[in-house]
């Protein structure tokens, strides 16, 4: 291995591709996305520019499939705008949602590392714009820089811990607590605080999608929502869920 001018190890004979005329505003937007993620936060700016030069923009409509389980793992994705749902399904059409991702999140790292097929499905939730870095360009950086590999391992460990938590919740928590935990989590990550102190979720989710998140039916979610509406804990505003009493929702989780 040779040490490149960036201070990052570069494979001998390996060269950076050009970005095809990307304007500075677009370059800055992509750099911001990559730099704020802990995987790449300590990487020299020149290296970020190299990775950005390899990247392409991919746009998806609501519920459009980004990749399916079994597809080739062609690279790493970052969310510039919109949301992404990671899920798995069976031949009978039943689905389980594994995670919801928002702007600034990276995903697709498992196939990025091992080069094998995708382990789950990914679909856009509403109009979504993604940054895509091909595996064939990213892998040489990993081989040349152990610190980058350790950062990827951190992401994988976080994914494993998250998955374990979801499995544990579905096994041991009652529906009310599982649903409250997800709503509180979504509110804490992305919600608008109203003058009343209520939290309005920015992410619009149908009852079917919430059911897939917590491992239950749309009908069960609807029944629980009706109970909470009667108690004044939640309300709906233009199709968006509002937590009228966030602390009471947290208490439901804590007492479970």
Automatic annotation (TrEMBL):
Domain named Cyclic nucleotide-binding: residues: 39-148
| Keyword field | DNA-binding, Transcription, Transcription regulation
Residues covered by the HTH crp-type domain: 173-247
Q: Which GO terms describe its cellular component?
A: cytosol
Q: Which GO terms describe its molecular function?
A: DNA binding; DNA-binding transcription factor activity
What protein am I looking at?
Answer: Crp/Fnr family transcriptional regulator
